[in-house]
C-alpha cells in the first residue's frame, strides 16, 4: 500500500491534482460525471480565517493542503455577509493569524475592509489558492481504505470526490444564519431580513425598524440605523452583559486577559462589572438585565459573548433606541409583543445569530455534536478527532482560538506526514478504486 501511495505522490510532484473520471463523459442529464481526486496532504473545508491559518501553518511545516470553499472568495463571512460599518470587535493584536501581524498603520480596531485586505495579503504571502465555488456536500471516513472521502459540488452537476488521509473542518461557527420562526411571518407586509443581508441603514432612512436580538450585531445595527435617521427598536428577550469596549485606558478584552493571569475569574468578573456600572450605569434601568453569572464565567460555560458597547447604550439612554420585550406575533404592518402591546413597524431585522453547518455534510458520530455542529470536547481539546479528522475555529474564542487550533493541527499532521505512510494510515487494504 505504501508503495502505491508513493507512486501516486510521485505523479503528483508535477500535477497537484491526480484526477480520474468515474463515470466518463456527460450523462443524459448533461452532468459531467464525478471525478475522484487523490490529495496527498489534508483537505481543508472553508477558506475563512481558520482555513487560511491552517493552510499557512501546514505550509510552514512543508505539508501541502487543498482548501475547498463554497463561495467565490476568501473570508466570505466578512466580504459577503457583514454590514459596512463593522470593525473587529477585539483589538488587532488579539485577531492576528499565525506568522503575520496586522500592518502598524492599521487602527486598533481594523475596519471590515482592512481585515479583508489583511486576509488577502495573508493568502498571498503563503501562496494559498483555495478551490472556489466548491461546496462540500458530504464527507465520510472510509474505514476499509483508511481515507476520507470528501464530496464537493460545483454548479448543478459537477461533482468531485477528494480522497485524503486528513480532513480539516474550517466551516466556522457562523456558517448558516439562524432565522427564527415567528408567528405571522407570512402576513407581515414589511421587509424581514437577517443581519447577514444587512449592509447599511441607508435603505431604512425614515423608517421604523424592529431589531430582534441584542448581541454585538443587533446593538451595532441599531446604532447604524440611528446614524441613518431611521427609528430603531430593540427586542431584548434574554439577559445580557454589556461592557464598555475600553476601560481604564485599555481594551476591556486585553485588560481581562491580563487580570486573569493574576486573579481568579470570579474576582475579574466582579471587577469588570463594577467598572462597567461606573462607566455605563445600571443597564437594567434601560431594559438590559444582566445574567446572574459574571461575563467571563458565562463565556466560558456557555460561549455567550458579552456585548462590547461602541455607543449603542448612550442611544438607548437618550431614548433614540427603544427596548421592547419578546415578540408574540407579527401582523400585517405591526408587531404584537408578549406584554400585549402592538406597534406598527416598516421592517424587521433579525440579529439572531448563526450556527455551524457541520452535521449537514460530515458523516461522523463522535467529534461533532449532532444538534449544534460544534466539537463535543470543550476547549482546548476540541481540535482533534479520530482517523485524521480535525477542527479549526470552533473554540468560541474568536481568532485567538483559531490560531491556537491551526498551530496544533499543523504540528500533529506534520508528525504523521513525515513518518512512514504505513504507520499513519490505519487499516489500509487496497488503493482507492476509481
Ligand atoms: C459580525 C462578526 C464580527 C466578528 N468580530 C470578531 C472579532 O473582532 N474578533 C474575533 O476574533 N472574531 C470575530 N468574529 C468571529 C468570527 O467567527 C471570526 O472572525 C472568523 O470569521 C471565523 O473564521 P472561520 O474561518 O472559523 O469561519 P468563517 O469566517 O465563517 O469561514 C468559514 C468558511 O467556510 C465556508 N464554508 C462553509 N460551509 C462550507 C461547505 N459546506 N463547503 C465549502 N465551504 C464552506 C464559508 O463559505 C466560509 O468562507 C466575528 C463574527 C461576526 C459574525
TrEMBL record:
The keyword Ion transport does not apply. Pathway: Plant hormone metabolism; auxin biosynthesis. One of its GO terms (biological process) is auxin biosynthetic process. The keyword NADP applies. It is an enzyme of class 1 (oxidoreductase). It comes from the Eukaryota. Keywords: Auxin biosynthesis, FAD, Flavoprotein, Monooxygenase, NADP, Oxidoreductase. It catalyses: indole-3-pyruvate + NADPH + O2 + H(+) = (indol-3-yl)acetate + CO2 + NADP(+) + H2O. One of its GO terms (molecular function) is indole-3-pyruvate monooxygenase activity. Its EC number is 1.-.-.-. Its cofactor is FAD. Signal peptide: none annotated. InterPro entries: Auxin_biosynth/cation_transpt, FAD/NAD-bd_sf, Flavin_mOase-like. Belongs to the FMO family. This is Flavin-containing monooxygenase. It comes from Cucumis melo.
Amino acid at each position: 500500500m505504501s508503495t502505491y501511495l508513493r507512486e501516486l505522490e510521485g505523479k503528483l510532484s508535477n500535477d497537484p491534482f491526480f484526477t480520474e473520471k468515474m463515470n466518463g463523459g456527460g450523462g443524459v442529464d448533461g452532468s459531467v460525471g464525478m471525478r475522484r481526486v487523490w490529495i496527498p496532504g489534508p483537505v481543508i473545508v472553508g477558506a475563512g480565517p481558520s482555513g487560511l491559518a491552517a493552510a499557512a501553518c501546514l505550509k510552514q511545516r512543508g505539508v501541502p493542503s487543498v482548501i475547498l470553499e463554497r463561495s467565490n472568495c476568501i473570508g466570505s463571512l466578512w466580504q459577503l455577509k457583514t454590514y459596512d460599518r463593522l470593525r473587529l470587535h477585539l483589538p488587532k493584536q488579539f485577531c492576528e493569524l499565525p506568522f503575520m501581524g496586522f500592518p502598524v498603520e492599521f487602527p486598533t480596531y481594523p475596519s471590515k475592509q482592512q481585515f479583508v485586505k489583511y486576509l488577502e495579503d495573508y493568502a498571498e504571502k503563503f501562496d494559498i489558492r483555495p478551490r472556489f465555488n466548491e461546496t462540500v456536500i458530504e464527507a465520510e471516513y472510509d474505514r476499509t481504505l483508511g481515507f476520507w472521502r470528501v464530496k464537493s459540488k460545483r454548479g448543478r452537476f459537477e461533482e468531485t470526490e477528494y480522497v485524503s488521509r486528513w480532513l480539516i473542518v474550517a466551516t466556522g461557527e457562523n456558517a448558516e444564519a439562524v432565522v427564527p420562526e415567528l408567528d405571522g411571518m407570512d402576513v407581515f407586509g414589511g421587509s424581514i431580513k437577517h443581519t447577514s443581508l444587512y449592509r447599511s441603514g441607508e435603505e431604512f432612512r425614515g423608517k421604523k425598524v424592529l431589531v430582534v436580538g441584542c448581541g454585538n450585531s443587533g446593538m451595532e445595527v441599531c446604532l447604524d440605523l440611528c446614524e441613518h435617521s431611521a427609528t430603531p427598536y430593540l427586542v431584548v428577550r434574554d439577559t445580557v452583559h454589556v461592557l464598555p469596549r475600553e476601560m481604564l485606558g485599555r481594551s476591556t478584552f486585553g485588560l481581562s486577559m491580563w487580570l486573569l493571569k493574576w486573579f481568579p475569574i470570579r474576582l475579574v468578573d466582579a471587577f469588570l462589572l463594577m467598572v462597567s456600572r461606573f462607566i455605563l450605569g445600571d443597564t437594567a434601568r434601560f431594559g438590559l438585565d444582566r445574567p446572574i453569572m459574571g461575563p467571563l464565567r458565562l463565556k466560558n460555560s456557555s460561549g455567550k459573548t458579552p456585548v462590547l458597547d461602541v455607543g449603542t447604550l448612550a442611544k438607548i439612554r437618550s431614548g433614540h433606541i427603544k427596548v421592547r420585550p419578546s415578540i408574540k406575533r407579527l401582523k400585517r404592518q405591526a408587531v404584537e409583543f408578549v406584554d400585549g402591546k402592538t406597534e406598527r413597524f416598516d421592517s424587521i431585522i433579525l440579529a439572531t445569530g448563526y450556527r455551524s453547518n457541520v452535521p449537514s455534510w460530515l458523516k461522523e458520530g463522535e467529534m461533532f455534536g449532532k444538534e449544534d455542529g460544534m466539537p463535543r470536547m470543550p476547549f482546548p481539546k476540541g481540535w482533534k478527532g479520530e482517523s485524521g479528522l480535525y477542527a479549526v475555529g470552533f473554540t468560541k474564542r474568536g481568532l485567538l482560538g483559531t490560531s491556537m487550533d491551526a498551530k496544533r493541527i499543523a504540528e500533529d499532521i506534520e508528525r504523521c506526514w513525515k513518518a512512514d505512510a504505513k504507520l499513519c494510515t490505519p487499516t489500509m487494504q487496497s488503493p482507492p478504486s476509481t
